Amino acid sequence: MRSWVAVAFVTLAMLSACGASESEADRLRRLGRDRGVAGDYEQAVGHLEAALQLDPDHVRAHDDLGVCLRDLGRLDEAVEHHRRAVELDPAYANARRNLGEALVHLRVAIELAPSDARGFRLLGHVSGLRGEQEAAVAWYRRSLQLEPDSAMGHNNLGYNLLELGRFDEAEREFLRALELDDRLELARNNLDELRERRAAAEAETGGKEGR
Question: Could you read off the pLDDT of 81-99 as tens digits, one per residue?
Fold first, then answer.
């Protein structure tokens, strides 16, 4: 009899421990998900944003928030949260699928409002993260047609050109970014990286020619 009592006590203790293990961020994420399923997207967003304040790297909170923002028509924010979820956990299939759906909605919105540079920048950013540098370059060029004095836009275009090995074009974009904002350390760092990569590429080419 005593052994059964002991087992029951241990089982209850384990169940209590499991319940207590739910963090406040997890609890808020669960509340947000439930409100989203019920169609109360505004309340859902509030809960999910609160969860992310406590745990900025909560993958599922980012993904759930992206879904709610998409259904509220806040597409650029939705894409950003799905992108962050994928960045934190590339193997999370739901986030990858939701990111793809949000991008489809964003492209449709851009076609309806083609003068919004933010949408083009976001598409460029996501394309770059996916390793689609040619597409990223095209999207950033379109954003710069609308906002030619965006230092960050020139920097991001330059980075994707750098990834494609188009060093001269990339250098021009980094220099233009620094012209527009000489405090943009990201562009300065990217320029240093470009020069290192170009020197390495030239050394490799020179070595092959000398053989």
Answer: 998 998 899 999 999 899 8
Answer yes or no: same fold for 25-113 and 115-211.
Answer: yes
Give this prediction's pTM: 0.62
CATH of domain 25-113: 1.25.40.10
Per-residue pLDDT reduced to its tens digit, 50-85 = 999 999 999 999 999 999 998 998 887 888 899 899
Report the distance separating Cα 93 and Cα 193, nearest Å.
33
DSSP string, 163-176: HTT-HHHHHHHHHH
- Measured CA to CA, the distance from residue 80 to residue 67 in angstroms comes to 11
Q: Looking at this protein, which amino acid is placed at residue 97? A: R
Contact 110, 123 (CB under 8 A): yes
Burial of 72 (0-12, 13-18, 19+ CB in 10 A): middle
CATH of range 115-211; options 1.25.40.10, 3.40.50.1220, 3.40.50.620, 3.40.50.261 = 1.25.40.10
For 109-122, the pLDDT digits (tens) are 777 777 778 888 88
